[in-house]
Amino acid sequence: MITNLLSSASLVLKRASSTIMPRGRTLQNVVSELEKFAPLNLAEKWDNVGLLIEPHKARPIRNILLTNDLTERVMEEAVNEGTDLIVSYHPPIFAPLKRITQKNWKERIVSTCLAEGIALYSPHTAWDSVPGGVNDWLSSALPCVDMQPIVPNPLGGEFGGAGRTFTTSLTLGQAVASVQRHIGLDVHLSLGINHTLETPITVVAVCAGSGGSVLKGFEADLYITGEMSHHDLLDASHSNISVILCNHSNSERGFLRKFENKLYDMLKGDCEVTISQKDTDPLKTIVKT
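Request: output the structure for the sequence above.
Response:
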């Protein structure tokens, strides 16, 4: 948490040193930089990644908004802030759209982007796979030794892949506390059938988002993911594997704090890069009183 605060403060000071409007970049140039970080061929075949909306009239990209999910509240924020490009981790256009009307929230988002001339880019599983991406960020909640992808990318292990596994040395209770500090939020815990909070944890498997299919059957002491089905949790428990659930987008969103600085540097300060203040996980934990 202290590291995140210092990083954010450093970025604010660096940007405050200049009151000149960012010079901007072309949309094609910004997209090229995004794809240098995470090439689109790293994404899963079923995914819909890359430039999803390109406005008819080109304009310099000066203001970039990062968000985990492009909801209508985030869309309104983008319009109010004069955003030129939205980078939405999850693609708001996934299933094919047969029409663009005002009856559906996703169609309204597309309509607003087109009307306001705002471009839209989504990296999704390319960011999951790439070294230094979302899964590496989530894994860094714990001390990591010999981190490897659970499912290596067909292009080669150096290109990352789905999920991460590594060895560590701490108790389950310490792991829970470390993940909570890392994401800044509460988590849910499913205990392995013979586990307690004092159980030593050695092998960890991580998959940001919905990790059931990637983690299923993988031998480990602990899984860390966003969400898993009830039956997958029962299977893990009876295999003596504990599971930390962060909620789907809470296992991903914190990466934006790291990427905000990285993208600003990649573009050499030519664009302002900010994180949405309206983007939140739809699930809230209500503590019983």
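The radius of gyration is 20 Å.
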